[in-house]
Amino acid sequence: MRAAGKLAAALLDYISGYIQPGISTLAINDLCEEFTKKNGGKSAPLGYKGFPKSVCTSINEVVCHGIPKAVDVLKDGDIVNVDVTPIVDGYHGDSSRTFIVGGKTSPEVERLVQDAERAMWVGIEQVKPGNRVSDIANAIDDYLTPKGYGIVRDLMGHGIGRGFHEEPQIPHYRSGRKLSKLEPGMTFTIEPMVNLGTWEVIFSKKDGWTVTTRDGKWSAQFEHTILVTEKGYEILTQA
């Protein structure tokens, strides 16, 4: 898991240098695939339940699972989430970052990106033995909801290891339920999807993958794979 996580971190560091106006999401995909193979990994998304590409690229109002395409060319001021999951020796490392294309966007969107990243860290800080999944969810909700954001409910973090998606599910919103207790050795993702407007989303009937905000407002996301340790946590997808 550490090896897979390190490759995911290295892959996002590598592709960050290519995120600029004029590049297509297909080119991003192809660069990621080449880097993954060159470093002894395999792209988990490629062929997963029929997904056609090696990474997910989600622009502006696309929440997640955007399919890389030659016609999707990044423009100044766009935001794009690149979600990568390399497999190393049968284990998965899952991570994503939202990039501001060209380095500048509107103040509102800039705050969205900053707050989405901070929300992930707020959740990570709750990880330790004896706490519960609900502590992660509640902390993220308590940080984001007062700021007026919509926290996506239909998609969430997940256990991960030899399988791409395992138990437990990791929601990022307050549900009022007492969820699984955290125990040393558990590995899972924390990946809040944060919308400028409503939390509600639309699942594409056309391609079966792309998820967009219901109101067309923009969305940002950050993700790390976390290991619960004896005393707290270890971030597996950090360089």
Task: Give a structural overview.
By secondary structure, the protein is an alpha+beta fold. It has a single domain (2-235), classed as Creatine Amidinohydrolase (Alpha-Beta Complex), CATH 3.90.230. The protein has four helices and 17 strands.
How many discrete domains? 1
Total DSSP E strands: 17
Please mark out the parts with pLDDT under 50 across 5 or more consecutive residues, or reply none.
none
CATH fold label: Creatine Amidinohydrolase
Structural class: alpha+beta
Strand order of the largest sheet: 1-5-6
Q: What distance separates the N and C termini?
A: 13 Å
What is the CATH homology-level superfamily? Creatinase/methionine aminopeptidase superfamily
Percent range of helical residues: 10-25%
**Overall geometry:** globular
Tell me the β content. 25-35%
Helix count, per DSSP? 4
Summarize the structure.
The chain is of the alpha+beta class and about 240 residues long. Helices cover about 25% and strands about 25% of the residues. The chain has a single domain (about 1-235), classed as Creatine Amidinohydrolase (Alpha-Beta Complex), CATH 3.90.230.10.
